[in-house]
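Service request form, structural biology core

Requester: graduate student, group of Dr. S.
Request type: structure prediction, single chain
Budget code: on file
Notes: please return the result as structure tokens.

Sequence provided:
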Amino acid sequence: MAAFLRPFLFLSLGFSLLLAPASSDKELIKDTCKFTTVHKDLCAKILSSKKESEKANAHELAKIVLEITHAGASKSAGEISTLHENAEDMSELQQCLEECVRQYEDAMEQLTDANAAMDKKNYQDAAQWVSVAQGDVKLCQLGCKSVPGYKNVVTKQNGEVGRLCSITTSIIKSLVTKN
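Core staff response, request fulfilled:
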């Protein structure tokens, strides 16, 4: 009788494993985001919001967060460009925003270079490119802080991109130590 039930036992065990929730996917996101120290919750939120994160390995999670960072920088660059276009000619504000537009163009190039380095699994270079992009964002912020009455004009955009760069750099650096 017991020998007769064994195939059914294995089948039911197999089906239960297939139907069980994949907690390891969430664990990988949690483990990956622990490297960000300061922005763990934001990291987990943005990675969990992307369907492709569900089946991603650590390298793929880093690529996903890099793509999110690039998209965030692109959005902020557009907002800053619009502010620049609407600023009064030859004003200190227009000059600071013009410099920010240049800084964001550089940051976008750095993030593109980081993506190319990720494709080659050259994690040290990728992390360096993202850090340089983050530096461009900081220069934008510093340049506009001196404009009377407008010291916070780009703080929101720079803060968002700065946090994304920080998360991305931390995750990529974690891959350096793993490989």
